[in-house]
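Following the same procedure, backbone shapes were mapped to integers, yielding the entry below.
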Amino acid sequence: MRKALYILGQLNDSDIQWLADHGRTRQLRDGEIVIQEGRPIDALFLNLEGALAVTAGDGVEVARLGAGEFVGEISFVDSAPPSATVKGVGQSAVLEIKRSTIQRKLSEDVGFSARFHRALAVFLADRLRAANRRLGYSKQGDLGSDRILEGELDSTVLDTVSQAGDRFNRLLGMLAAG
């Protein structure tokens, strides 16, 4: 649920309502592909329940994502085709929000745009730092005391962790009621 902590923690309550109002809940069958590596996508997805398997290249699973995880955010940012395939595992459901709908909201609502882009930037920076550590470009012993160690959350996220969890639960409630 790490991505949800970054993204939902930066958004406000009216943004969560907007996601509920403009997204479409999609139930997935076991193995149903949500994102196909190399094929353009026209949406951003939030995993609502169950698990999503992420595979790359030769079909090797590189990650398994739980409820609250966003997928498709990198292709949303740079418009390049996805570098991985994402599919449902068992019973799962995602909230699908069309790219054109989000782009319209970003252009019409400066506050939402600032919060949304900040959330993506903080998340992607964290992902890059983690990748650098895995590749050996940055040794934990070389990090200053003000640096984030592997597995720790950025201080900007820690301040909003509780709110992010509450917002995710509220979003689930709105979708169930809607």
About this structure: The longest helix spans residues 110-134.
